[in-house]
Each structure stands twice: as C-alpha cells, then as structure tokens.
Recover the amino acids of this structure.
C-alpha cells in the first residue's frame, strides 16, 4: 500500500513540474490566428477561458480574431480545439 502512495505522489509531483515548465516556456508567447484557415466554427472562442478570442464578420464570413492579446497565457487550450490549424503561438512583441 505504501508503494502505491509513493507512486501516486511521484506522478503528482511530475504533473506539477510539467505544468510549471510549460507555463515558463510559453510566457513570452501569444496566440495568433491564420485567417485563411479559419472556418468560423467558434470552437476556439468557446474553449478560451481568458476571453482572448472573438468572432468578427468580414466580407468572407466570420473569422476568429485576437481581441485581448494581453490576457493570453499561451495555455494552448484553443489550439487543441481548432480542427483547421487556424491558430498558432508566436513570440510576444
């Protein structure tokens, strides 16, 4: 039983360490939209908990745009939801 607790504790510590490493690595990045790939499906906008993305309508239809880049934490949640590869992380300017 003690072995199970030790393994569980090690897994938890590795999960925390990985999370901190990803956060540090992506600190200088921000999300960017590749408008030619965006289909306007709203999946990324619904997934973003920081309300960085917004849908705007232009002559070709609805497209995602970055509304508040200062709020972006580069967590990658919206990247995982986009099926059309319309989002990417770029260096923060």
């Amino acid at each position: 039983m003690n072995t199970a607790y030790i393994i569980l504790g090690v897994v938890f510590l590795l999960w925390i360490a990985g999370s901190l490493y990803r956060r540090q690595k992506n600190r200088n990045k921000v999300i960017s939209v590749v408008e030619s790939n965006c289909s306007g499906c709203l999946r990324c906008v619904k997934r973003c908990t920081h309300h960085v993305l917004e849908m705007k309508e232009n002559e070709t239809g609805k497209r995602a745009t970055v509304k508040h880049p200062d709020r972006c934490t580069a967590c990658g949640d919206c990247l995982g939801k986009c099926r059309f590869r319309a989002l990417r992380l770029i260096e923060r300017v």
Notes: The chain has a mean pLDDT of 87. The first strand starts at residue 29 and ends at 33. The radius of gyration is 17 Å.
